[in-house]
Amino acid sequence: MIVPVVLSGGVGSRLWPLSREAHPKPFIKLDDGQSLLQKTYQRVASVSNANEVITVTNRELFFYTKDEFEATENRAAQNTFLLEPVGRNSAMAIAVAAQYALAQHGSDCTLLIMPADHLIDDVVAFSHAVRRAEALASQGKLVTFGIKPTSPKTGFGYIEADGHEVRRFVEKPDRQTAEEYLASGKFFWNSGIFCMRAGSFLTELSLFAPDIADQAFKCVSGAKRSSGEGWQQYEMQQADFEQIRSVSVDYAVFEKSQHVAVVPCELGWSDIGSWTEYGALHPSDQHHNNVTGNVMLKQTNNCIVQGGDRLIATLGISDLIIADTSDALLVAHKNCTQDVRTIVDELKSRNDPSYKSFSTVHRPWGTYTVLQEGPRFKLKRIEVKSGGRLSLQSHKHRSEHWIVVSGNALVTNADELIELSPNQSTYIPLGNKHRLENPGFNRLILIEVQCGDYLGEDDIIRYEDAYGR
């Protein structure tokens, strides 16, 4: 039995401002309307014909991830979410998945482990590679997928191999070394895709990183479990999780084990790890520009321009990346694609919210968008999906005024229960317990006006919450 494991933990900081901490790379929508996460989920579910898919992700992204899965076709009968309170890299993420699979399915359960933010064009070739990997895994091998290189990339790790036998793992090389690797025909890109039996992996993990193996067992066995129709979640406790060291599975196990094998393959694979690779997903015009959105180009060559509804006009430029979102604009030379993460690091050090989220923020009940903010006021557009309900809450520092634009609202305001239709409103005084619900079948859209001396999202006292927050 193959049980797919989707690892959805990376931020994708080199794709800022399109990727943010609260809206990371797996949630980026491609031109066909599907996110990278949805494509990965459908790929592993179809290739493995799985009844269950395990997803390891941050607990703050659980509802967003669950919504993405529910919007896909060919869903697995059971979706299991292992929720991390903090990120601890791939060794710990795979360890908790293996511990869960061992407990539920036994040591011979074969895990197919996929990062959530990769793209594979040739699903048939991928299916064949999975079958080869499964055969090796049945022999106790820890199998990694080696991608035949098409260019001397310096941003990838490499695997030197002889057939299925791994000679060595090597770190990201310089340009000259990468060209030598490409010419030799013996080196493959390290894809971060793995196939192995849960018991085989945990045996090797216990040998080379026993602290991670022990802590993973503790985290899974001590997790808070809840479930619904077709899904279950294991919320691992912060005190158990944050003690573990952050290390990649390559460094912790694969580079040390004597039981590693590689499946060389050509899959049309990309990790979309930079703006150069993201741009290549879009057709190139006669001047080698890759463009998305409302863009007008004049005397522009070899540029990547990512926009939306707002017009971007360029004139007399070359070799640039221009990425525009609702609240941030990146302009960078194409030679600096690997350095975009330094901007994110700087924004984080300044506590600038644009490193973390967009002006539109996803919540279990829907979304909110900050339209305008100033001294002592904030204006929001709130959308509540059908059946969605915000928590019963109050605020210490602000009052709120709600105006319904579309749909129907059911409002708890202190001791009152009020029904509101479009163009009707209510006022929530500071300190009142209140809740907003959408009892209808259509989306509820309203405008919220906040007034007070502090308008941060942490000024919420929750009394009841349908989503367990």
Give a summary of the structure in a few sentences.
By secondary structure, the protein is α/β, with parallel strands linked by helices. Helix content is 24%, strand content 36%. The model has no long low-confidence stretch (mean pLDDT 94).
Describe this structure in words.
With 469 residues, this protein is of the alpha/beta class. The chain has 3 domains: 2-270, Alpha-Beta Complex (Spore Coat Polysaccharide Biosynthesis Protein SpsA, Chain A); 275-345, no CATH class; 360-464, Jelly Rolls. Strands 1, 2, 3, 4, 6, 7, 8, 9, 10, 11 and 12 form an 11-stranded mixed sheet that branches. The protein has a 6-stranded antiparallel sheet with strand order 20-21-22-29-24-27, with no helix packed on it. Strands 14-16-18-19 form a 4-stranded mixed sheet. It starts with a strand and ends in a 5-residue tail after the last strand. The mean pLDDT is 94.
How many helices does DSSP assign?
Answer: 11
What class, by secondary structure content? alpha/beta
From the spread of the alpha carbons, the general shape counts as globular
- The count of β-strands is 30
Gyration radius from CA atoms, angstroms: 24 Å
Identify the CATH class of the largest domain. Answer: Alpha Beta
Low-confidence stretches: none
Assembly annotation: single chain
**Largest sheet, strands/sense/barrel:** 11 strands, mixed
Output the CATH topology of the largest domain.
Answer: Spore Coat Polysaccharide Biosynthesis Protein SpsA, Chain A
Straight-line distance between termini: 35 Å
Percentage of residues in strands = 35-45%
